[in-house]
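Q: Could you fold this chain for me?
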Amino acid sequence: PWYANFKQVLLSDFDSLVSEPPDEIKCHVVWGKVFVAEWVTPKLMLGYIFRHGFVMNTIVISPEYQQLCYGGERIDKGTSALAACDFGGWWRGIVAVAERAVPKGVDYMRVDIFPNGWEFVVNELSVAGYATLLEDWMLREMMRRVQEGYSWRGAEQHEKK
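A: Sure. Below is the predicted structure, expressed as structure tokens.
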């Protein structure tokens, strides 16, 4: 919805039609692989999603999405075959964009993505994104992975000599 609103504002004089702020997926990428992402809006932290799709904490599902994908307010009523309802495919798309955005050899980068349905847009790249909403154990694990990567690089260079 945000991207559609953004295009409308850019291409018209009807800036009063913008109805909602953007969701943003803040992907923490270590040595080219997403470790964890934070799904946030300007006022809410919706949850953490790990690289392989595990969701920690509750991600809020809008009533429109529940109706479209599950046929009502209860998720156990069944699922839709619509591509827009394929969370796994959608998430793999986010991961692919985040990992492509980071240059090879970079130890850590946060890639912020506006999901815009299935039209993913990279909003920001940050090398100083550690201090966000991540929990302490996540920060420790992320730093362990960064350090481990440097150990591997050192071992590879030592073997070449």
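A (continued): Helices lie at 2-11, 63-70, 87-101, 136-160.
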